[in-house]
Amino acid sequence: FSALGSNVLRMSSGVQVKPKTAVQKSKKSSPLLCSLEPVIKTQTKPSDKLNPKTIDPFGANSRPPSAFAAIYAKGGIPCRLMHGSVKHRLQWECLPETVPFDPLLVTLAEGLRETKHPYTFVSKEGFKELLMVEGATEKAIPLLPHLVPVLKAALAHSDDEVFQRGLDALVQLSAVVGPSLNDHLKHLLTNVS
């Protein structure tokens, strides 16, 4: 507000308002009249004190990334998605034969539960390509106690595509490790049925 001469205030919108006198201030204003005075005091809701963090449905996704997505973003998986004109493929930073199976195969199996691209493709193809390397049988058999619970979680997922990826991975793992998987089937059969 800026004062202009004799008791007239000019608002930023160009409206001229005379300031109230002491007599006018004591009178109650009519409910039909609009006040041009801005409301300075903001009302706080009780829920603001109880729940200071509210969810903004239109805001950016504030949900933290999954473990697989975080590992992939940090470069912990030695392969990347290569977009082709017709077909996608993985490009490995080093030969898959030289990659240690111990953390990587289990991490790729955990990624089978992902529902977003490129994580779905990287986990599915990476798991398959890792099991196709020479000597995969000897490297995968010791990891069965770690792989079975992860595959069981993928088979128990409510998303049909996640279930299908888990089932495909189980078939691929079974073809590689053979009868070594028999001891662990009791944990998987209820989810498969």
Automatic annotation (TrEMBL):
Organism superkingdom: Eukaryota
PANTHER family: PACRG-LIKE PROTEIN, PARKIN COREGULATED GENE PROTEIN PARK2 COREGULATED
Name of the molecule in the record: PACRL protein
Organism: Syrrhaptes paradoxus
